[in-house]
Please model this.
Amino acid sequence: MRRCTGRRSTTPREPQFRPRPTCSVKQKPVMDVPLAKASRIAALLTASAFVVLAISRPSVAADGNAAGQALYQARCAGCHSVDTDRIGPRHRNVVGRAVASVPGYSYSPALKELGGVWTPARLDQWLAGTQKMAPGSRMYLEMDDPNQRRLIVAYLESVSKKR
Ligand code: HEC
Model:
């Protein structure tokens, strides 16, 4: 807060002297934006927040196989990913893909000898026992629960081309 000071005379021989304020304090409006406009802005912000929420909602429902995806994360993602070769080859389009055919991935002779194409039925057989299906393969897995196998195979289908 500024204090206004009047100019003071030092010579007492100036009788007409009147102290004049050298500053004027103007009251600034507290809120520049009128209330109506402010609430319109608030409404707009709320509305756009809802739009963002609607767009970014997880698309779990879209493939209807959240359980399969979760199982894949828990049982396969340690070695595999959908789009990158890791310890195991990538899984994009695996349904309908020739066995042991990802370019640049180094398969075991056992898997290369298996031949044929991955179908849902063959993937189910693979997950039930990799060493029974291709003895000497570098993937060791036996999933006894047919329901879990079905969910994972459905997930693999969902990351493959629809045919
Ligand atoms: C411990 C590591 C590991 C885990 C866990 C694993 N895999 Fe594998 N997987 C491999 C390896 C290594 C290969 C290559 C095998 C070979 O060359 O003999 C492979 C190969 C495959 C193939 C053959 C792909 C092709 O291109 O022919 C499929 C299909 C597959 N895995 C599916 C799965 C699924 C589904 C799961 C989860 C239920 C899983 N794997 C879990 C390591 C793993």
About this structure: The pocket of heme C is lined by residues 75-76, 78-80, 87-89, 94, 99-100, 102, 107-108, 110-111, 118, 123, 126-127, 137-139, 141, 152 (CB under 6 Å).
